[in-house]
Design goal:
Belongs to the glycosyltransferase 34 family. There is one protein chain. This protein is α/β, with parallel strands linked by helices and 460 residues long. The protein has a domain of 236 residues: Spore Coat Polysaccharide Biosynthesis Protein SpsA, Chain A (Alpha-Beta Complex), CATH 3.90.550.10. It has 16 helices and eight strands. The chain has a six-stranded mixed β-sheet, with helices on both faces. Strands 4-8 form a two-stranded antiparallel ribbon.
Amino acid sequence: MSLSRSPSPVPSGGWSSPGLNINNSGRNSPAVVTGGPVHWESTAKMRHLGPNGYPSFSTHHQGFFTRHMRRISSSLPRFNNSNSDSRYAEKEKLGRGQWPGQNIPSVGRIRSIFGRMGRKLKLRLLFALIALLCVYIFYHSPLVYHWRRASWGGGGEKFVIILAANVGGGVMEWKGAREWAIERDSVRNKRQYVARWGYDLEVVDMSTKKKYAHEWRESWEKVDFMRSALRKYPKAEWFWWLDLNTFVMEPSYSLQDHLFDHLDKHVYRDINIYNPLNFTHPFSDPFLDDDARSPVGDGDVGSVNLLLSQDCSGFNLGSFLMRRSAWTERLLDVWWDPVAYEQKHMEWEHKEQDALEQLYESQPWVRQHTGFLPQRMINSFPPAACGDGKGGNHTRYHYSERDRDFVVNMAGCEWGRDCWGEMYHYRQFSYWLNRNPWERFKEDLIAVIWFKLTGKWVKL
């Protein structure tokens, strides 16, 4: 007769059932219950039991150095202490303290370093190298110029700077060495500025010409040159006239960032804000429309076609801007009319400037499209111009180092002042303000240390 179940492995019979109580059971099987493990449990399971009979959760190799000892020891340098040549071991100590990695060439070391890098780190280094290379190529190649010039980029082709030069001397006098030096520095300054921002530069020759050969018409030709520039640059929108005795102090300022991106915040059309000529503004004639009788015209900054500044004596045309428009063509035609200079040349000391003031005073259509800028925004003066005779700095007219004014105009320097001295001073001062970190390091640290050691200044 076969048994219904296999014999019990316990010697005294019965089955090992820790959950059963033999005293309350109705039968003798299972007979004996032991607290420890049974003999037929696997040896592998017994290894994981602790002294108290419960499973142990601690690892066999505890500690960082215990688990990584082999990896750390294999990466340490190995020194050659072999005594293969005992004849020279004591005399020259060959091979003592040498590291085999010292004999590996640089290329091999670099390859080994890259070999130990992970794939993600290699990709990150590759992307960083490509980004740095693109930035370097962009800023050290003509790409940055074309980007700043393009209409879809910086929009530099919309701006033209017209610089007055005097190659062969004027009607009244010829140029000397100092005048040549002024022209050289002024032209170079404007060329560097337009090359940085992608603008066009038109250097006009204001030398003796037959159509300007009238002693009272010299300097009126700027109106004619403005008309010529409008025809020569059909894609340009704004034309900036600069006299020869001007210097761009801050070449890092673009016209867009400095002025045109926030034109509504800088322009004022109500001349009563600053009115040195005491014009009556606005017109009050009843036959005029509302815009002509308004102190701010139509109130739209987009309708301003002439931007200029006022100094202590009135309008100043050493630095002014004109926008391409039908109104501009009309103004230039009237401004250039021979009636203006032939009838008033004995009264108008400032020639074309006085003519524009007369047009502004008498013609409502001129006022409606004329806007004024703070003088120091495009036309700062040195302390000697519009000065009080004491060399004081007037905050409305004079250049301020703290505010880093954009342009300096040495207006009137030919009347009792040193034009070349002022040009040289502001040229050097502009260089000092706009030095790069390497130039600052050489001149503010190395040159100073050398001066303290030797007592002599050096130009590095």
